[in-house]
Amino acid sequence: MVLPLVSRWSARVLWASPGWRRTYTQRACVGLKRLGCPRGVYSPLAHRAYSVVAGGPEVTLTPERYPVQRLPFSTVSEEDLAAFECIIPGRVITDPEQLQTCNVDWLKTVRGCSKVLLRPQTSEEVSQILRHCYKRNLAVNPQGGNTGMVGGSVPVFDEVILSTALMNQVISFHDVSGILVCQAGCVLEELSRYVQERDFIMPLDLGAKGSCHIGGNVATNAGGLRFLRYGSLRGTVLGLEVVLADGTILNCLTSLRKDNTGYDLKQMFIGSEGTLGVITAVSIVCPPRPKAVNVAFLGCPGFAEVLQTFRTCRGMLGEILSAFEFMDTECMQLVGQHLQLTNPVQESPFYVLVETSGSSAGHDAEKLTNVLEQVLNSGLVTDGTMATDQRKVQMLWALRERITEALSRDGYVFKYDLSLPVERLYDLVIDLRTRLGPRAKHVVGYGHLGDGNLHLNVTAEAFSRELLGALEPYVYAWTAEQRGSVSAEHGLGFKKKDVLGYSKPPVAVTLMQQLKAMLDPEGILNPYKTLPAQA
Amino acid sequence: MVLPLVSRWSARVLWASPGWRRTYTQRACVGLKRLGCPRGVYSPLAHRAYSVVAGGPEVTLTPERYPVQRLPFSTVSEEDLAAFECIIPGRVITDPEQLQTCNVDWLKTVRGCSKVLLRPQTSEEVSQILRHCYKRNLAVNPQGGNTGMVGGSVPVFDEVILSTALMNQVISFHDVSGILVCQAGCVLEELSRYVQERDFIMPLDLGAKGSCHIGGNVATNAGGLRFLRYGSLRGTVLGLEVVLADGTILNCLTSLRKDNTGYDLKQMFIGSEGTLGVITAVSIVCPPRPKAVNVAFLGCPGFAEVLQTFRTCRGMLGEILSAFEFMDTECMQLVGQHLQLTNPVQESPFYVLVETSGSSAGHDAEKLTNVLEQVLNSGLVTDGTMATDQRKVQMLWALRERITEALSRDGYVFKYDLSLPVERLYDLVIDLRTRLGPRAKHVVGYGHLGDGNLHLNVTAEAFSRELLGALEPYVYAWTAEQRGSVSAEHGLGFKKKDVLGYSKPPVAVTLMQQLKAMLDPEGILNPYKTLPAQA
Lengths: 535, 535
Ligand SMILES: Cc1cc2nc3c(=O)[nH]c(=O)nc-3n(C[C@H](O)[C@H](O)[C@H](O)COP(=O)(O)OP(=O)(O)OC[C@H]3O[C@@H](n4cnc5c(N)ncnc54)[C@H](O)[C@@H]3O)c2cc1C
Ligand SMILES: Cc1cc2nc3c(=O)[nH]c(=O)nc-3n(C[C@H](O)[C@H](O)[C@H](O)COP(=O)(O)OP(=O)(O)OC[C@H]3O[C@@H](n4cnc5c(N)ncnc54)[C@H](O)[C@@H]3O)c2cc1C
Fold this sequence. Notes:
Two copies of one chain form a homodimer. The first copy, chain A, has about 525 residues and is α+β, with helices and mostly antiparallel strands. Chain A has 18 helices and 16 strands.
C-alpha cells in the first residue's frame, strides 16, 4: 500500500488494475546474452510488438502527407540483397509483414516503404554494410527501438533500415567506477536491471525504457526523468564507437571520466539522430544506486503553486531531489480513461511528482517530511501521497510515464516538446485551448518542470491539415518569442526539421550543413531528417 | 581554529603564516563593472602580475627549445596596427614591457615574440579584428588569464595576441534557475563571488581561479575541484557565443537547460583551445549554494588506504561528497618549503582532502562523522582534522590548491596530467622515482582522485633535454598501455600536441584535422597548437 504521509492526506486505495507494470510496452525479451537470456528464443521483431502499432487503420505514407521529394539515391537491387546476405547471413529481412512495423513510427504518424531491414550483430558488420551502401549510393535509416517522437526512426521512402536490435551485448562493467560499456542496441531497461544488480543505476530513465536502445538514446540526446539530477548525456557518455557513412569505424570508446586530448568528437554524434554516423557502442558512467528512494505525488490548486512547490523542493531537498515532474488534470483524465489508472489523490488542476534519491533513508525522509508539511500548511499542495517501497514508487511513476501512451490511444497526436522559461511554461497550453476550441479533442501539458521542459500535446480524432495550420507555426513562433527551444529533448527528425530556424540562427544552420557534408558527403545517412532541405 | 574532530586527532596549531589567502595569485582587481569595480583604476596588465612570472632569468624562446617552423603567415605591419587602432582605439598594446608577460606562459616554459596585444571589449570588436586578420593572413593567439599548463595560451612566434581581459561584463543572471550569462573574460573568482552573493556557486573551481577567465576555462574544458560533484562543462555550459576565424559571429548563447534543435555546435568549441574560434560569451548553469560545507583533511598510511578511503566516502557520503583530492608527502613538503604552509596533521605518506556540500548541516555532519569514525577505526586514516567555517575550509583547501604554485617555485617543472585506472594511479610515480633517480629534484603525485586524474610532476634545477628524454615518451607509452589519457584536463596546447596519438586513433586525428580545416581554413587561429603538424 502507498503510505499516506499525514492523516489529512488521501487514503483511498490507489490502483484499479493491480497487475500492471511500470513499463507499458509489451517489452520483448531481447537477446542480451550476458544479461541472462539465451539468444535463440526471440522472434526477430518481437521488440517492436507494441499494441499501439499493431492493428488499426493503415498509416498514410509519409510523402503523401508531407511535401517531400525522393532524392536520387539508388534502389536496392537483387545484387545488393545478395551482398548484404554475404555480410550478415540470415539477418537480411525482406518479408513485408516483418517490415511493416519498422516502417511505421511509434506514434503512427509517418510511414516509409523500405523493402529491406538489416540486423547486424557487430560493428564490423555495420561497417561492411555502410561501405557497400556508400559505394552504391543507397540511403540508410539507422533504427534503434523505434520509439522516437519526431519521425526520425523510420524511412521516409525506401531507405535501407539498419537496426541495432541484435547489437545487444554488454562489453564491460567496472563495479568500482560504475562505467558501463555496451553495444548500441542494448535496451535501456535491460541495462538498468543489469547495473542495478551491481548497485548502480543508469544515469537516464524514460517512459520508453522497455523498448528504446541506448544507441537511440544517445543519437537523440534523450533527456528523460533523471536529467534534473544526473544531467545530460553530454556529461555522462564517456565514449562512443561510431561507424561513419563510408564504413570507417571511429573508435572513441574510452572509459575515462576526463580526457582532453584534442576535440571531443563523440559530441558531434550525440544528438545527431543518425545523420552523421551509426553509433555502435557506448561507454557511459552510472551513478551509485541510491540507498533510499521516496516519491511523493501531490495535487496543486494552480500552476503558480506548482512553481512554488518546485522552488520549495529545490531549496529544502537540495542534493537529494532527483525528479520534479508535473501534469495537468487532463493528463490524469486520459491515463484514467485509456489505461485505467486511478488518481491516488483528490482531483486537482495540477499534479506533481517529486522524487528523492539519497544515501540515508532517515535523513531523506526527514527532509521530505519537512517539505511536505511546509507545502501543505502553506496551501501550495492540497492533497498528496507518498511511497518508498519499489512497487508503489513504480505505481506513482506510471501516472506520469504512461501519459504518452494514453495520448496515443486518444487519437492523432500533435506533439510539441518545448523548452520555455519556467514561469511561462503553462501559458501556452491555456492559450491554445482558447485558440483551438472544439477543433481539438484534448490540449494537455505535462513534462520535466525541473528542466523547463513542457510536453504540449493536442489530440484529435484524426490528422487534420486545418488543425495543423492552427498549431503551426503558431506554437513555434510563440516559443521563439520566449527564446525557448522548439525541441527540448525529442530532436528534429523528419517532422521538425524545417523549424530549426526558430531556435537557431542562420549561421548555425549553415555550420550544421557543413558538418553534415564533411561527415556524410553523399548524404546517405538518414536523409530528409534533422536539417532543413538545402535550397 | 580548525576543529579537531575527535580527541586522538592532531590538535597542533595549523598555520605558520596567518595572513595568507585561498587564492595565491596576486589577483588583480579586473574591471568587472557590474561586479562593483570601476574600470578606470586598473593598469592594463595587472591581471598577469604573478610573482612567479616577474623577475628570474629570461625564458628561452619557444622555437629555440622546440623543433617548430614558423608558417607563412603575414607579419603585423604599420597598416595593420592602424586598422586595429581604428577598431579598438587605445587598446592596441605594442609596448615591449607590457607584451613581455603575455608572451610567456604561467609555468615560464615557453615564450613567443608577439609584437601586439589587442584588448577588445565586445564581440563585435573581436569580429572586426578577426575579419581583418583573416583577410591579411595574420595568425592569432586567443588569450584568457594565461594560466594554461600546456603552452597554448601564448604565441609560439609573432602571433597577434587577442586578450579577453576587458570582456568582463556579466550579461545576465537568473536568480531562480541560476543561469549566468557573461562575457568570456570574466575572472572565475569574480564570478564565484557574484553568484555566491545570490546564493549559487559556480559549477567549477580551480586553483587558478583568481586569474583564469571563464572563456579560458571553456576553451580548455577545465575540470578542477568540483568536477566530481557537478560534472563536466559539457553538461553545465548551456550556450556560447563564438567568433569564427573569418569574423563571423556564431550566436549559440541560449540559456536553456535542454535544446535538441540540430547539432550542438557549442560542443565543438568547448575544449578546442582557441583553435576553432574565439569564445566571446558563455551561458552556464550554477548549482544552488550548499547550505553546509565540511572539509576533512586526512593522513593515510599508503595508497591502498587512500583508495579504500575514497570508496568508503563515496559509499557513505553519497550525494553530498563534493571533492576527493589526494597529494603525497612530497607535495606537502613543497608547500611547506616554498609557501610556508603548515601540515595540519601528522606526517603521512599520503593526504586526502574530502569535501561535503549539502543542504542540511546536521545531516551532513552526521554522515561525515560516521565516515571518519569508520576510516579511523579501520586504520585507513591515521590522523585528520576537520573544518566547517569558511576561513578554515579555505586554509585546508590551500594545501591542495597551491601545490602547482609550490612546484613552480621548486625549479623547472615537467608536468603530466593523466587519466589512469584509479587502482594504478600512483604506480607511475613510484616507477619514475626509480627510473629518474637523482636526475630529478622531486617526483610528486597529486590530483583529482575521484575522477581518476593524476597530476604527475617532476622538478629539476633547469630544463634538461636528457631528463625530458627519460620522461618522454616513457610516460605517454605507460599511460597508453593502461588505456589512459595523456591529457585529462589541461588539453594539448603547444607542448602536448604531438602526443595526441597516444590517446586517439588515426581516424580520430584525421577527423579533427578536417574539423579544423572546416572552421579555420587558413589555420590562423592558434596555429602550432592542439593538433599535430600535418605531414
Ligand atoms: C513513451 C515514450 C516516452 C518517452 N520519453 C522520453 C523522455 O522522457 N525524454 C526523451 O528525451 N525522449 C523520450 N522519448 C523519445 C525518445 O527519443 C526515445 O524514446 C529514445 O531516446 C529513442 O531511442 P530509440 O532506440 O527508440 O531510437 P529510435 O526511435 O529508433 O531512433 C531515434 C533516432 O535516433 C536514430 N538512431 C537510433 N539508433 C541509432 C544508432 N545506433 N546510431 C545512430 N542513430 C541512431 C534514428 O535514426 C532516429 O533518428 C519517449 C518516447 C516514448 C515512446
Ligand atoms: C594554479 C593552477 C591550477 C590549475 N588547476 C586546474 C585544474 O584543477 N583543472 C584544470 O582543468 N586546469 C587547471 N589549470 C589549468 C587550466 O587550463 C587553466 O587554469 C584555465 O582553464 C585556463 O584559463 P585561462 O583563462 O587562464 O586560459 P589561457 O591560459 O589564457 O588559455 C588556455 C587556452 O585556451 C585558449 N583560450 C583562452 N581564452 C579563450 C577564448 N576566449 N576563446 C578561445 N580560446 C581561448 C588559449 O588560446 C589557450 O589555448 C590550473 C592552472 C593553474 C595555474
